[in-house]
Amino acid sequence: MSETNSAKWYVVHTYSGYENKVKANLEKSVENRNLQNLIHQIVVPTEKVVEIKDGKKKSVDRKVFPGYVLVKMVMNDESWYVVRNTRGVTGFVGPGSKPVPLTEAEVRSLGIKETQTSVDIKVGDSVRVIAGPLENFIGVVEEIYLDRQKAKVLISMFGRETPVEFDFVQIQKIQ
Length: 175
Hints:
Number of strands: 11
Distance between the termini: 38 Å
Order of helices and strands: EHEEEEHEHEEEEE
Largest sheet: 5 strands, antiparallel
Oligomer: single chain
Structural class: alpha+beta
Strand order of the largest sheet: 10-9-8-7-11
Number of helices: 3
Radius of gyration: 19 Å
């Protein structure tokens, strides 16, 4: 894989307060346009802080960089267009219209973890859905996407096999 084709982290500027909405909209666009190979991960950096309100301690997530979303993506015309035209995005951080990727040191300093997950399921395993609208359905794993923490499972619905994508936490291997 050439250097120009590998995914890097970019900073996207959003309307303040729209960070989570931009993340959700962008994830939906990636799914709808089947761009998982170009846009890998979308993060709104948060930190746990303790607030004291009415004499009660409460742990809350606070945005580290209000107005910004971090996106790990392969930069090309298509991925740039999708991110740039997501509702709530005002642009990429960088001079003019040229987005500048974060350096490895910057990514580390932001505390973004490249999560490597190992799962006890493999293609062909039978699994039970343990969360979500299809809870208690049983299916067979067709594909596993470690980078996105998801698995495509064939569920038998209305007499036909239907592929459904689940987060790893939504399914459980049947022993």
